[in-house]
Amino acid sequence: MSSHCLLSNLSFAVPNSKPQLFPIPFSCHCNTFFYCNLIRPEQVCHKLRSYAPLVPLAARSSSSKRTEDTEEVIAEAREAVSYYLQELGVSHKESIEVALNSPNYVSMLIDSVRELDEFSLWNSTDFEKAYDPVPAIPPFKSKVYLMAKQKGDKGMLPFLESIGLTLSSATHLARYLSSNSLFQTLPTLINKVKYVKKIFFANSDDGGHIARNARQMMMHLSISIDEDVQQTLSFFEKIQARRGGLHLLGSQDASFRHLIESFPRLLLLPKESHMKRLMVFLDDIGVVEGCKRQILLLFPPIIFYDIEKDVRPRLQAILKDGLEAKDFGQMLLKYPWILSRSILQNYENILIFFDDEKIVCFLRDLGLDDDIIGRILGRCPEIFASSIGRTLKRKLNFLMGIGVSRSHLPRIIRKYPEFFVCDIHRALRPRMMYLMHVGLSKREVALMVCRFSPLLGYSIDEVLKPKVEFLMNSMGKPISDVVEYPRYFSYSLEKKIKPRYWVLNDRNLECSLKSMLGKNDEEFAAEFGKGKMLVPPL
């Protein structure tokens, strides 16, 4: 029979007819049988029958291993699986995709059929009513179909394997889903998986940014955590264990399986009445479409929260302390853990601590204290996952240990709340020691911190060292000049410090660091550049 033989036989099939278990077959040029109302013949040839043989399951015992399955056997098994899925309401196209991408499931069915053949068990009580071989119909295919039906997983096993789960994980998840009263049908599950992939992994080119936020959130966590945060950490650990680490968090191929295994309830949530409502809520608080996935991936349990019972009350608890609603979306984007019970409780404790330390109790008669708290929260929400005793108090003691007076603490924290999430041993102490190493006294360092607290956050190798070396070696100024103007370290070395120094040097002019850098371009040009900002070529 020619390669187009089956197309000429399509007239025998009744379009849109209700499929029977095994309709009238007709052979193809490859000496196999096809069934028109199951799979289109040309698709069977080029899809289900063109793939390489399956690799037998590793779980097969040596005594049950047989000769490698032939392409014919595999193709028939896939056709049976595809038909079974269509019987459950899955579309023709999707049934083929699932059959092609569930090799271990297909191998399991083949093994099960062969074991029953080997021990002549098809006439046992479980199968004697179900199995009724039809003359001229390949009996192997009918057995695979019946075996798939007998498994009782409602088609979930092959589908879950086809989306990336191992067969063992798929089996566990299928049991969980089928035992829950919220589970409906396989087509509903397929539709829900598509939606979950869309909201978690659309525009998946920002994995690096998501990974940085995840690391930062983990790094600054120093309190007892609730189950939601613990589950999130476990999810992160599964991704971290893979080659590529947390950078893969935003990758659908790498993360989806672990997401579903860690949070199987995702597949039971109502799509319209729950998940889509959350997406609308995120719109309302200013989270743009492309950024919603960052919140979901950094804190998946948020999708289980009831908007009216969980999210809005927690949001109001934060808004009452000075954060404006329009800024909440940005804060949630940076630190979605703020909505967890443990961190929200710690937030209340920290507000009390801040009040005791007089960090926000200034100008109370003008009502500015709440605004300051809101600004701190918006800039550095990681503070509210920090232990008061093990983290916050220790860092205030560190400042007082280098000579900062207690009266200066409120100003330092207001200007640089990120100080609370800097590591003492790996960041704060080495930076202060470096400044003393290059010639400053402990008192001078403390004075600089009081005048310009962001100094605490500058890297030695990337900021402090190159600017100190240029100050002393190229500009010929003493290190003591930075005590009067510590903001010197905030300016770009290549874009501002060097160009302005070269202008001054070209004119043999001397001035303080503040005069050199504290003016805008127009003011500097008017005073030192004869009305024109001249930058010598590098």
From TrEMBL:
* UniProt-listed InterPro entries: MTERF (IPR003690), MTERF_sf (IPR038538)
UniProt keywords (A-Z) are:
Transcription, Transcription regulation, Transcription termination, Transit peptide
Indicate the family of this protein.
Answer: Belongs to the mTERF family.
PANTHER family named among the record's database cross-references: CGI-12 PROTEIN-RELATED, MITOCHONDRIAL TRANSCRIPTION TERMINATION FACTOR FAMILY PROTEIN
- What name does this protein carry? Transcription termination factor MTERF6, chloroplastic/mitochondrial isoform X2
> Which species is this UniProt entry from?
Solanum pennellii
In the UniProt record, the gene name given for this protein reads LOC107014798
